[in-house]
Amino acid sequence: MLHTQSLNGTWRVRPCDGERGRLEHCIGDTVDPVRYLDAQVPGEIHLDLVRAGLIQEPTLGMNHLAARWVEECYWSYRREFAVPAAARRAKRAWLVFDQLDLAATVVLNGAEIARHCNVFYPCRVEVTGKLRETGNFLVVNVEGGLMWAGNKSIEAYGAANRFDWNLHKRVWLRKPQCQFGWDWSTRLVNVGITGGVRLEWCDDAVRLDRVVPLVTLADNLAEGTVRARFCLENLTAEEQTVTLEAAIPELKATARATAVIKPGQQVAECVLAVRSPRLWWPAGQGEQKRYAFHAVLKQGKRVLAESAAKLGFRHVRVNQDAHPDGGRYCHFVINGRPVFGKGGNFVPADMIFSRADRAYYADLVDRALEANFNFLRIWGGGLYESDDFYDLCDEKGVLVWQEFIFACAKYPVTDPAFYQNVLCEARHNVRRLAGHPSLVAWCGNNEMEWGAWDWGFDHFGAVLPDYGLFHLALPRLVQEEDPTVYYQPSSPFSPDGAHPNADHTGDQHPWSIGMADTDFRKYRDMTCRFPNEGGILGPTALPTMQACLVDGMRHVQSLAWQQHDNSVDVWAVQSWPDAMIRDWTGREPREMSIEDFTYWGGLVQGEGLREYCENFRRRMFSSGCAIFWMYNDCWPATRSWTIVDYYRRRTPAFWPVRRALQPVQVMVALEGDRVTVTGVNDTPEAVRGTLRFGVFRLDGTRWPVDRRAAVELPANTATVLAEFPAAKWTAHEASFAFAMLEDAAGTLLARGRLFTERFKDTVWPTAKVTVTLEDGFAVFRSPTFAWGVCLDLDGETPLADNFFDLWPGIAYRLPWPGRRPPKILHIANARAATRG
User: Which of 500, 758, 811, 835 has the most CB atoms at less than 10 Å from its CB?
Assistant: First the structure.
């Protein structure tokens, strides 16, 4: 069997910038120890420098700028190790680096043994016959990629208006593209030995690299198969015969096959047949049943290797049938049941990527479920997400759309070495992630098809240098390695040769709203089939806002603020996001305190994201999802697209999104000459209750339309429950259309409301709120409408609700464990407001 010796732990490291520090001085048996610092492997050099007190935590204040020198150096890692006699005598031995970031040269005992330049797959190098008994010196000289790409041409691929591309040349570098800065993140180029390191050895003739279990389920949902693909390497010059065994003990399913393995690498299979497995369902649709899977590789009676995994059985289809209104549907069907996708775009959990551990991911997945998500799109400028992330999504029922790591650029795929590097990366990650029931889609890239249509990718520089990668090489690779998962070339993408961002087919990024135009009422008319990227900017949680700022700069639009602000703020001469707050509230954001900005900016963002989510949900399944940009952050931001910030705190917008995505919800819409009420029920069971709907004046004096009806919301359906003539709704600036659903016991299940005017043009009464404690509940009451009742801006307490409204004369009850009633921090109309 394969034996291993970990080389993780404390290494020594030193910087080399060419003038102070020479790489040739770092590779011998003898070095000057005073020039070295301690470094943790796996780890990342910024973290080592923080521990040594040489830089400050880069995410805080202006520290990221002071750390820019780090990416301009080579970092020479070094450690000494002894090896057991068995490793020295072994027929084959390897050094394995799970991840190197990025351009690395590996030196063993003074001799170069490997070069590697891709963070997305391991570096494995044979060291047979090169090991000493003691005093082995392993040196890794690594830099973040800037020097490796320094002499590469960017003119054919780069953005003409982005001079920073001439510095980093990110399209050549196979690492997370957002390291080089995006609108929601600064540039922080990671460097280091960011994965585990180990010595491996064996005396076997065949080595098992991994077992890839491909799970399929028949249309009848009762018969399944598991293709156990053994990825093998014959280490000899002759054919070898091996035995493959696989089993799912709980299902009493076993398989055994014999394979003849030629010299080199290849794949051999055995296939298990399964009957009547319990199914794996997305969150809210059923249980997330997983089965233990075990595989064994033998030669004769000798066990060469074993592998274990957890498998889920689910049937996945992407419905792209013809739509009666033209174009095609686009939604996922899981186990024969259409599933409406609710969620957001997932970006790397930390700008220092190796810092995100399983606890990070557990918090983020749990918070997504708290927000009523069932879907996360892994955006193409970040990561092939970690094993921990996927295991948690499997466990908790979160569907995942994973993109290959290409975004918003043209890539030099016509370069043969680059192309082969990418294929190695893609094959490794498709094999690594195959078998996860949560993974339902592979996508070639983010927005590059759109760029080819509308952004000039087909006109300047190299013309479509990467088109064949996404339309030929990657789909062919996915079909070979994991045909159980849907693939599409880009996002957005439309079948049938339609524009990639066409509303009537494929998926959409509805960015006509959210940047220059922030009138999010226009979401109400969007009919996108699968909208999986669109959003509204807003603040993060208050402590996170404060972490971005430094003394002397603790005000809106200070230099520290601007460093942590979304760069959309400067995409025009005047700030679009600032204008959004002025246009909607009539208030000047640059005169606000940080706390006031957090409240008012969060209130506006929450309203915008609520509109996005509710519009597409009420069109279920004509629209197949409500997936917005974006869910999480990789560093503290003063303004971002997120509902969960870098510290995993709930932003103000978290709460209206959570309500908009709750399993049972009612939405009010103005459609022509009618006001309609749509009930959405995501659950597998019908819901019955009493619907109250109509129009009320904000001051509570009149309810011009106030009706009740017994209703039923069928399972997994959006249903128009009621309507009334729009002519009955007058004085829009002083009233809202509303709907509320209660069960037979009078418990509130859902409520929705619709305004037509901007907030600054609404006649707001003065809110008069009282709060009492009654039998474990905080009960809020107001004789007039109270908008945006805020109990917390820190985002750390798991409240039952926050940033909610009170309707005239109707009590609102929240579970409250405290012995004192909650303190209200803000109400948008706490004082009478004049029309602006």
Answer: 500
Question: Could you tell me the sign of the dihedral formed by the alpha carbons of 641, 644, 646, 649, in that order?
Answer: positive
Let me know: does 602 contact 539? Beta carbons within 8 Å: yes
Cα torsion 66, 67, 68, 70: sign: positive
Burial tier of 773 (Cβ tally within 10 Å: 0-12, 13-18, 19+): middle
Do 341 and 374 contact (CB within 8 A), yes or no? yes
Percent of residues, the chain, with pLDDT higher than 90: 97
Cα distances (angstroms) measured from residue 265 to each of 226, 237, 404, 464: 22, 12, 24, 33
Q: Could you give the count of Cα atoms lying within 13 Å of 536 in the half-sphere of its Cβ?
A: 32
DSSP, residue by residue, 719-785:
EEEEEEEGGG---GGGEEEEEEEE-TT--EEEEEEE--S-GGGS-PPPP--EEEEETTEEEEE-SS-
Task: Read off the pLDDT band of 133 (50, 70, 90).
Answer: confident
Question: Which residues sit opposite 248 in a β-bridge?
Answer: 253
Q: For a pLDDT cut of 70, what percent of the chain falls above it?
A: 99
pLDDT in tens, 514-573: 999 999 999 999 999 999 999 999 999 999 999 999 999 999 999 999 999 999 999 999
- 156 to 117, 460, 466: CA distances (angstroms): 22, 7, 12
> Could you give the CA distance from residue 26 to residue 196 in angstroms, rounded to a whole number?
22
Res 836 pLDDT > 90? no
Strand partners, 14: 76
Mean pLDDT of the chain: 97
Environment class of residue 123 by beta-carbon count within 10 Å: exposed (0-12), middle (13-18) or buried (19+)?
Answer: buried
Is residue 766 predicted with pLDDT exceeding 60?
A: yes
In this predicted structure, what is the pLDDT of residue 158? 76
Angle at 454 between CA 449 and CA 456, to 5 degrees: 90
438: closest CA among 283, 628, 632, 627?
283
- Nearest CA among 53, 152, 148, 67 for reference residue 101: 148
Q: Is the pTM of this model over 0.85?
A: yes
Q: Which of 667, 811, 809, 670 is nearest to 732 (CA)?
A: 670
pLDDT of residue 831: 64
Stretch 393-412: mean pLDDT: 98
Structure tokens at 817: 């464990």
Residue (of 396, 336, 332) closest to 368 by Cα position: 396
Residue type (1 letter), 519: D
702 sits in which H/E element: none
Give the DSSP H/E element, type plus range, for residue 517: none
Exposure pattern of 409-440 as b/e (b: 16+ CB <10 Å)?
bbbbbeeeebbebbeebbbbbbbbbbbbbbbb
Rounded distance, CA 36 to CA 604, Å? Answer: 51
Residue range 160-203, pLDDT digits in tens: 668 899 999 999 999 999 999 999 999 999 999 999 999 999 99
CA within 13 Å, CB half, 708: 5
Q: Which two tokens stand for residue 478?
A: 């996915």
> What pLDDT, on the 0 to 100 scale, is given for residue 160?
65
Q: For residue 152, what are the CA distances in angstroms to 141, 158, 165, 752?
A: 20, 11, 11, 55
Instruction: Tell me how far apart the alpha carbons of residues 350 and 365 are, in angstroms, rounded to a whole number.
Output: 15
In whole angstroms, give the CA distance from residue 570 to residue 537.
13
Residue 621: cis peptide before it, omega within 30 degrees of 0: yes
